[in-house]
Amino acid sequence: MNLVYADEHGNLFDHPDWTGLGRSGDMIVELMEDELIPLPEGATIVGLPHTRPIGIHNASGEMRPLPGNVQAVGALLPQGYTRLCIPGYMKTDKMQKLPLFGYSAVVWKDDRFYVTAQKCDDPERWNPLNCDIKELNVGVERLLAKYPENRLYKHLSNCALGYECLTASNTFLQRWEGAVPVSFSCNAGCYGCISEQPDDSGFLAPQTRMNFKPTVQEVVDVMMEHLITPESIISFGQGCEGEPSTQAKIIVESMLEVRKRTSMGYININTNAGLTDHIRAIVDAGLNLMRVSTISALDDHYNAYYKPRGYSLANVEKSLRYASDKGVYTSINYLIFPGVTDREEEIEAMLGFVKRTGLKLIQMRNLNIDPESYLELIPKPQGEIYGMKQMLEIFADELPDVVIGSYTHVPPAPLKQPL
């Protein structure tokens, strides 16, 4: 397992005299053979600025930084893959923060790149290579021409073509899960928010948040264009917006109008579910799918990251329980991090949370964050750290009726009839 690194010009190398290592939390760890898979199609290897890779010098057996003007590298995995370790590195400038990506450990062996990851879902639908840019441009031009006054389509065209957001692209390709953002505000102050960062955060938000409130008609236009097949999904709550349920009135009115016109497809919301009364109204309007974002089932950890305003993790649990009881296919967008998500106390808390809320699906999503900043923010571990692979095995054993995946799915059978 040769250490992989980049030189000062960004050229990629492997070092036959050094063994690559990974990290679990703040601990440097050796990589196990059963943790490694070939670099998946659609993955990207990137440099970690202001770092040095840490490996084992084979001749001496010493664990130390690789000498020279070099930097560590990591793999950014496509949807469907759960990382098991972050790259083994040290920072050369502790004041510098890594860009907001989910870095996975990568090594070279048997004449190819390998990463520490586990396949949890079918990556085909979310493979960037399946988004044909020519077809996308045609779709963008067609819908912008058809709805020249619809600000949502103008906003989403930048998401699709500028940020290469696959959900926004699906909206114009009229396939699979499409996007309908509605909110410019949020009731949480997530430390790793990808659409809005305070000026003193040290992070650069990779996306720009929408800055307008759409009309019901604008939302209905997007929904009706997308809900054209039985398996279509249209989703409130995107990376380019705040918390969608803050605009519950617009969502409810739009859903009721759409369901007067068609029963086709599924309506989904990606939400923090903190506004329980708003979520109840959205559920009662005919919601089919709900994905709730969380980083932990422990209050102190959850609060440290989300900085909730006017709600608590108990509200999130109430919202999920209400939706599940009403027949909504519920899931969590579980933001995972090796050395944290696999802590003994977190596993126990999350198993209880899943069982109490009646969840159907856990979407394992690699947390995009600077590791040092995140570890300084959250509580220290209280018990054993099991490792991500064992954590996934525990979930599979303890939750046999819960799907372990990576993205929103159409339910295996209709769970409720739209209004």
Automatic annotation (TrEMBL):
SUPFAM superfamilies linked to this entry: Radical SAM enzymes (SSF102114)
Keywords assigned by UniProt, alphabetized: 4Fe-4S, Iron, Iron-sulfur, Metal-binding, S-adenosyl-L-methionine
Radical SAM core domain ranges (all copies): 181-347
InterPro entries: Aldolase_TIM (IPR013785), Organic_radical-activating (IPR034457), rSAM (IPR007197), rSAM_sf (IPR058240)
CDD domains named among the record's database cross-references: Radical_SAM
One GO MF term attached to the UniProt entry: 4 iron, 4 sulfur cluster binding
Cofactor(s) required, per the database record: [4Fe-4S] cluster
Any Pfam family the entry gives: Radical_SAM
4Fe-4S as UniProt keyword: yes
Protein's name according to its UniProt entry: Radical SAM protein
Annotated source species: Paenibacillus montanisoli
